[in-house]
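queue> pop job 88
queue> type: inverse folding (structure -> sequence)
queue> payload:
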């Protein structure tokens, strides 16, 4: 069972291809939800998913979508279905960790110093300062932002862990200054 939700038929990616797949494979059912007409799929209760797929509790499930939708899905599966849910998230909760003290960030390669708050990712601090910093997902997954730490320590904004030794590679998108920090950028 594949459920795809988007605003309108015009916004529906791979609409015809999915229809073709459903024609080709009798075991595949598809359901398109156009939120402009039908409203959003609501997973804060089991009513919507129950109507679409009555035996959902016994199935493996894969979900991707906005954070609030995934939060509801996670809670629903935890509550009612022994957790058979796999999710792909495109955002990260940086409020999970306890923000540290912040401090003076030295971008050694750029010969720049900036005062940074303890809850602001070093990637943002670099960009604000006009420092050319590598990045990708901006949520701690791709590791494109890995940058050598020259001195000091950083706070992992997802967990609150303070860590770092000179020479370590730090993910600037999810790390903030925990006191004075030197980066190679
Ligand atoms: S930009 Fe992807 S992990 Fe930092």
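queue> result:
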């Amino acid at each position: 069972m594949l459920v795809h939700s988007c605003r309108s038929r015009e916004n529906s990616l791979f609409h015809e291809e999915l229809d073709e797949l459903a024609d080709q494979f009798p075991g595949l059912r598809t359901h398109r939800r156009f939120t402009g007409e039908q409203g959003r799929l609501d997973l804060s209760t089991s009513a919507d998913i129950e109507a679409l797929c009555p035996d959902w509790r016994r199935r493996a499930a894969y979900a991707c979508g906005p954070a609030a939708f995934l939060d509801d899905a996670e809670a629903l599966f935890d509550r009612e279905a022994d957790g058979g849910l796999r999710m792909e998230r495109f955002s990260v909760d940086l409020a999970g960790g306890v923000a540290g003290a912040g401090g003076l960030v030295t971008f050694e390669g750029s010969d720049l110093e900036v005062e940074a708050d303890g809850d602001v990712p070093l990637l943002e601090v670099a960009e604000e300062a006009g420092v050319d910093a590598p990045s990708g997902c901006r949520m701690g997954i791709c590791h494109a932002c890995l940058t050598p730490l020259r001195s000091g320590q950083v706070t992992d904004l997802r967990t609150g862990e303070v860590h770092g030794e000179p020479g370590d590679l730090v993910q600037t998108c999810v790390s903030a200054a925990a006191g004075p920090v030197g980066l190679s950028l």
